[in-house]
Amino acid sequence: MDSSSLTCKKLTVIAVLAVLIQVFGLGFFVLGFFPVKPALSGFSGVESFYPPGADSAEFQNTTNLSDSQLKYLYQELSLVPPLFDRLILLVIDGLPAEFVLGKDGEPPPKSFKEAMPYTRSLLTKGRAIGYHAKAAPPTVTMPRLKAMVSGAVGGFLDVAFNFNTQALLDDNIIVQFLKVGWKIVMHGDDTWLKLFPGKFSRHDGVSSFFVKDTVQVDQNVSRHLVDELSCADWSLLILHYLGLDHVGHLGGRNSVLMAPKLREMDEVIKTIDLNSLPTNNNDQGRTLLLVVSDHGMTGNGNHGGSSYEETDSLALFIGPTNFGSTSGTTNKANQVDLASTLALLFGVPIPKNNVGMLMPETFISLTVDQQLRLLELNSWQLLRLLEAQLPGLVCENFLCDNFRDDGSERTRGYSSLEETFCCLYMKAADLHRSWKSGEEKRSASGDNFHNILVAYHDFLRTASEWLSHRATDKPVGQLIFGVAAMLVSCLILLSLLFLLGKQVFSEQNQQFSSANDDLSWWHLDEIFILVVIVIVVISMGSSSLVEEEQYIWYFMTSSRYLLSLRKVMQHIATRTEKNTSATLGPKTNNYIQICSIFVILISGRFLRGWHQGGVNWTNLPDISKWLEQAGSTYIKLFQLVSVFILINISLVSLLWSRRSKKNFMTMVSLMHLFPGMLVLHYITKYQDVAFGTGSYDATLMAQIIYAVLGFCSTTIVVAVPWCIPFQNRTQVQRKAWGLCFRDSAYVIGLSYIYYWSLLQLLLQQPINSMPVLFLFLQVLASIWHSSGSNQHLRQWVEVATLYYMGMAGHFGLGNTNTLATIDVAGAFIGVLNHSTILSGILMFIITYASPMLYLLSMVMYTSVKDTSGFIVSQEGNIGSLLKRTLGFPCLVPLGLNSIFLIAYTIVLLLMRNHLFVWSVFSPKFLYVCATTVCVCLGVSVVASTMFYICLVLAYREKLQTRTD
Amino acid sequence: MDKKKNDPKRGNAILLSVSPLKALALHLICGVGLGLAFWVADHIYSLDLITHPSLTLRLISVFVAPVLILLYSHLRHDRSQCSYLKAVGRGLLAVPAGAVVNAVGATILGAPVGFEYFPKTFNWSLLMSLLTFVPAACVFGSSWTDWHRIFARTKANESTDYMICLPAHGAVIGAWFGAWPMPLDWESPWQEWPICVTYGAIAGYLVGLVASLGCIFFCNSQQHLKEE
């Protein structure tokens, strides 16, 4: 037998190497795909009217100021009176700027042009300035609205780390308006309500869910229009019309409904303009109507990607008088520029994370001094943000020689990024300073003014571009490197698995030399395991199957066990048919197998029914909802019953391991009983108050339970291999060794899964206690099942099945592929001071309860597989034993996980412009990453435990032979 | 409801207890009967599977049951001990028994449980029972070895075995595949339990009929070759 080709040491080293490569590749990919940019927390205040680095003692304390006082302070500091007093923000969802402004200087198509006569007339009269405001991908409503109001291009991880609260927590223009005492009214898309809960004085949200409705959804907004326009109490009126987006989704850009919809929007603009804007000289102040769209649409009406059609969104400023601009239709800007422009137009501080620059054409009516001042304010804000993102940015360090050169010199001479920004900024600032000092030269037509303008624009544009690209650009090389590393590791693991399988197979063939054709054929269940892999990988490409992934796992695991039921049935009859050597043993064995399969199937069905899960059908009834309706007494009862049954089952299972000293087993039983009692005590006494005021005792108790669980498990792992007796009086030495090995693994494995389940009963929501018990039952039953079917089934099939069961259980505990189902409350049990790391670990334990349970069960699994035949025949060492028992339980989960990981990574790359990339695919990717961590952890625990047992036993054997 | 078939090729010593032409006629009647049941439900009672799943399923079952039971009872194995009427009787008995097995299988695989689903599951399992269990019950009665050979080992020794085994397995496998579109969010009415599963089962059953016919003809020609 050629076992030297793949020794245990080699196997371990290569596997560990592969895992390391995988982790590195994953890290590279994640950092490349989700760029983390440091966002500034807090809100801009008076400091935005001082240059960066100004002494903060200079600032006036604003905490005691009332809203109106703050407003006047801002006006005083900014040196520029606000151009407008009230704002009407009209958002037309999905309107491409092309429809209103045309493309490349050409007017829009005739039908659209005729559909918006009033808007056209405003544009030609010069009362309106239109912009092609380029939106950043993903061109989906919520991120685009965020970009408009905060001026920042958000990353995905920012959202993920907020635990899925959709409320906008960063600095934004809405908050700035609220600070100066504005009242805000919102009618339209309820995304605004999710972003700004409780911030609007009046609102009427409409849902974008009913895409087929193109009429009612807009009427629900328009019906408020006349009333609101006659009201004087608001300063900001937000109207968000969804109908045009729905028209696009239904029929594309050239839908027959498009022109009527545009006409309707034109009517809205006309109504607002006639009712509201002419009142500019009364007490309500001057009103600005800003018509924007959040994104465009492709030819067939979709959006989400980064094509010109989708990113071409509109920003149309309509004022009461002429802006004095030359051209109203060919201006280009970025969508993020809206935040700074609005802030400067209304005299409030620019939001902290804004990366946009002001839209200069809107300020033409201001004096030259005022225009320069606004540019200066914008530059200060961007410089602050640059300083936060480039920690080494200290402008005094650079000697910008080519200062007063021509504009053509610009960025060419600078060596580093920092130098570029500093020099551009200092050039503008210096010019501006000298302009301020030289009073006499002030004239708008002068060369000097023009130079300063150009200098400021240079700086603003360079900084803005760099800042916004930083958030959206994905480093292609890094991504490819990451994917390649993960691919390599996946291939390594799979080839290891293949080699190991081949080797074990040949050994088995030698052992059972009776040319058993059972071994040489591919069996149905083996094919089925492979089919599951294929199906899961294919399903990753469909957003609805990612949302409803649980159905695949449930369906596949129960099908898998129905197949084994069929297989067991086959064997029953073979025995009765042959009826020769068949003793009672195998027959009862078959019945045990049938029973265990039924336990697995029935508890699996209960798990499935416990939580409806998924995204689309969460409202359907399930057992957990039913229990919650029944009341907390029942839930508690279920919880107590679960703990009680769990303790009993574990004690009974301990008794099965009968070849041990009595005292020792009593000790182990006590160590099982005691933490169980503690958990029972905790549930009866503390659970209800755990989040109340008297929670100190509860926290202490939880901490005690953690300590006891930790202590008991370590003690058992350390002590058991020393205490299990050798019985080599009657048997062959090696066989005794093997029995001892199996006994230790059995006790340790049982303790592992028992303690893990206890911990889950403590941490999980009370409603999940019964599912934890079901999981425990399933694990025991699957191990019983695999103990019966020894050589007929290849080991990797059983291990893969355990892995699949773990995934099914994961969803059975109510987890989904959205971040919303992560149980945050449980993560603070037993944590006294708020600690992100501890809570994170607890959250991981709660979320990955089931996959980890199944991985830990591998220890017990190795103990029930009949390796005695192998050990007796083999003159081998620890290495070959470990390889034989541990090879598959460790390599199969790693291999399967690496397949799923690489497949999903590739899917994510392909889907990066998909409409649902942020809402469906990216959260699922986080789960896949966390599963990888879970598998690595679980496998290392299993491997190290088994290694330890082997070492101890080998040492004891040596001792014994020496004393003999 | 998931029992897949192994390769049934190995039965090389096939006894042809039923002539190919008779099998063809029987299969034709089964297939046409099923189609006719749909037609009657649709045109005479104006019921269809999507709007009234329970009623339609029950109607089809009621229509198909006599056809299947009467036909397959002709093929009963133990002719000496078992009269035609007895075979019909055990076929009738097998309807509820098979329905229970099918309903349990479907529930384990995830069929929804609840009062509003009970009639659907019940009627669906009646139909499944007719397509899978009832023919076997008519032919084999309570012979455990035959049942075991057909359903656990998927081993067909003679032409009646093919006629029972392949359509039954086809129906089960078809139903298994028919469940696949259910979690997709296409929002079509036919994605509800048990509509697409029924479609799958019937499609599988028809494929099974054709396959069993093919096998019988193939064996027949093999036998002729051997004889020559």
Computed Rg of chain A: 35 Å
Number of helices of chain B: 7
What portion of residues of chain B is helical?
Answer: 55-70%
The chain pair with the largest interface is: A-B, 28 and 24 residues
Q: Please list the strands of the largest sheet of chain A in the order they lie side by side.
A: 4-3-5-1-6-7-2-8
- Helix/strand/pairing class of chain A, anyone? mainly alpha
Low-confidence stretches of chain A: 403-412, 579-584
Form type of chain B: globular
Main pleated-sheet profile of chain B: none
Tell me the structural class of chain B. mainly alpha
Give the CA-CA distance, first to last residue of chain A. 32 Å
Strand composition percent of chain B: under 5%
β-strand number of chain B? 0
Number of strands of chain A: 8
Return the average pLDDT of chain B rounded to an integer. Answer: 85
- Name the assembly state: heterodimer
Largest sheet of chain A: 8 strands, mixed
* Percentage of residues in DSSP E strands of chain A: under 5%
Helical segment tally of chain A? 36
* Helix and strand run of chain B: HHHHHHH
Give structural notes:
The complex is a heterodimer of chains A (964) and B (228). Chain A is mainly α and 964 residues long. Chain A contains 36 helices and 8 strands. Chain A has an 8-stranded mixed sheet with strand order 4-3-5-1-6-7-2-8, sandwiched between helices. In chain A, α9 links the parallel β3 and β4 (202-206). The longest helix of chain A is centred in the last third of the chain and has 47 residues, at 917-963. Chain A starts with 7 loop residues before the first helix and ends with a helix. The model of chain A is unreliable at 403-412 and 579-584 (pLDDT under 50). In chain B, 68% of the residues lie in helices and 0% in strands. Chain B has helices at residues 20-43, 53-73, 84-108, 118-140, 144-152, 159-178, 195-227. Chains A and B meet through α22, α23 and α24 of A and α3 and α5 of B.
